[in-house]
Amino acid sequence: MEHVTLDVAEGVATVTLDRPEMRNALTSGVATDLIDAIEAVPDEARCVVLAGNGPTFCAGGDIDAMVEGLEGERSEPSERSSGEQRDPRDGAVPAHERVERIVEETAGAVRAVATCNLPTVAKIHGPAYGAGGALAVACDLLLASESASISFGFRQVGLNVDSGASHLLPRIVGENVAKELLYTGELIDADRAEEVGLFNHVYADEAFEGRVAGMVDRIASGPTVALKQSKRLVEQGPTSSFDEAVRNEAAAQIVSASTDDHEEGVRAFVASREPEFEGE
Question: How many domains, in total, are found in the chain?
Fold first, then answer.
């Protein structure tokens, strides 16, 4: 993978967008590498952290591809009539094909994060913009530094919401706040993002790395099977009735109760000590 790195240590898989010169924008290469990185997370991982290299978490969609597309649309018909099959990111193809390809690639990257069955944490140290905001809210927890900010500024380039944000965002902040953020395209600071429920925690810049590491360690050292079950059940919750939720929980509890971690948890509770879960 050229544009995304994957590092695994002590049960934590850290996936880092690694194109700081492009502000980690979701170009075709970054989006494809991100999907590959999520798929490559090994079985021994117990938590996934998503980060960006450099001062920006993710600047969103590929603006260069949009510019090239606009220039291609303005070109003379003779320049676009060779009949050769072209990359849909090339401006010399019909606009609908180009837009469809860009949206599919970007949404595919967000989908890969949103559907990861492990607990996921977005580590946000700078701006998360547009599709970058969607990528952030695709994670289970959003941990931010004081310098972080977030925007769903699709309107700034004359586009409607995409990358799955219309599904993810209202589930976190509610429809009215989601609509406000989309209608205004406002880049909100960390405190405001925490206030509306987008960021779980905001840490001082100088304490950011240590505080994030502490939270991630708490998750990664937990009973992984049970946490995966809890994640799935919470995501099913909004579309389940109360009785369906109870049945789903009971079925999942059979799985969790059969693990070594459950036995360890019970023994630790009886002995009044901290459990040492192994994720099995």
Answer: 2
Residue 212 placed within a domain: yes
Q: Phi and psi (nearest 5°) for 189?
A: -80, 175
Residue-by-residue pLDDT tens, the chain, 280 positions = 899 999 999 999 999 999 999 999 999 999 999 999 999 999 999 999 999 999 999 998 765 555 555 555 555 444 433 343 444 455 556 666 766 777 788 999 999 999 999 999 999 999 999 999 999 999 999 999 999 999 999 998 899 999 999 999 999 999 999 999 999 999 999 999 999 999 999 999 999 999 999 999 999 999 999 999 999 999 999 999 999 999 999 999 999 999 999 999 999 999 999 999 999 9
Compute the distance between CA of residue 190 and CA of residue 1 in angstroms, rounded to an integer. Answer: 31
Q: Cα–Cα distance between 169 and 182 in angstroms, integer?
A: 10
In angstroms, the CA 155 to CA 137 distance is: 18
In a domain? residue 39: yes
Say how far residue 17 (Cα) sits from the centre of its chain: 11
Q: Which domain holds residue 250?
A: 224-270
Domain identity same for 10 and 102: yes
